[in-house]
Design brief:
The radius of gyration is 25 Å and the shape is elongated. The protein is built from one helix and 15 strands; from the N terminus they run αβββββββββββββββ. Strand 3 and strand 4 form a beta hairpin. About 15% of the residues lie in helices and about 40% in strands. The protein has about 200 residues and is of the alpha+beta class. The chain folds into two domains: about 1-40; about 45-195, no CATH class. It starts with a helix and ends with a strand.
């Protein structure tokens, strides 16, 4: 069977078109896979520190649980082995990359998709002027982690014994006014750390 030049051209065009579609589909699938498996580190914000044993610190936490973006407000019960009691919890469409408190309210500012969203203390979205957003966390402090001695050093004179199996600390936040109790964030989760007293 003899093929004309026109038929040959059409055949090669169809083969080329289908090869392009297949290659494009593979690239599209490859590009989407890392986005689905990429997990955002936990983010913490201390809303209220405690001053006495019966006073519970209040924290806001973002975590990626089962590929769901969860923002929650917890009360940490100091008298109940530091149990996290959920006060409010919502699912977000996307992961925030920053959390800040409000200057006058108990709400939370979350930076999601390059814009700031305000959540009330009940985690309801509300319109609020950006001038009320704090630009830093009041209770987040710098620290030095020594993996050889398994200690987190704070303010050069305080230290927390740390279990290396929990992972390297990435952030710490004061939970008490006296600086003896700390919220420690790692890439995999959160933990409570207590300063060594002598």
């Amino acid at each position: 069977m003899n093929e004309t030049k026109k038929e040959k051209f059409i055949r090669f065009m169809l083969i080329g078109f289908f090869m392009f579609v297949i290659v494009y589909a593979f690239f599209l699938r490859y590009d989407k896979q890392p986005l689905e498996t990429m997990v955002q580190d936990p983010i913490a914000l201390v809303l209220k520190t405690s001053s006495v044993q019966t006073d519970a610190p209040i924290v806001a936490l973002y975590e990626n649980k089962n590929n769901e973006h969860i923002l929650a407000i917890y009360k940490i019960e100091r008298t109940n082995r530091y149990k996290f009691k959920t006060l409010h919890r919502i699912k977000l469409n996307d992961a925030p990359d920053q959390l800040f408190s409000d200057r006058f309210e108990n709400g939370i500012w979350a930076h999601i998709d390059r814009k700031w969203t305000y959540f009330s203390k009940g985690l309801k979205t509300e319109n609020r002027d950006h001038k009320f957003k704090r630009n830093h966390s009041q209770y987040k402090v710098s620290f030095v982690y020594n993996s050889d001695t398994s200690k987190i050093l704070i303010n050069n004179n305080q230290s927390i014994n740390w279990d290396n199996r929990l992972g390297n600390p990435i952030e710490i936040h004061a939970l008490t006014n006296d600086g003896l109790l700390w919220l420690v964030l790692t890439k995999t989760g959160i933990s409570i750390g207590a300063v060594e007293t002598q």
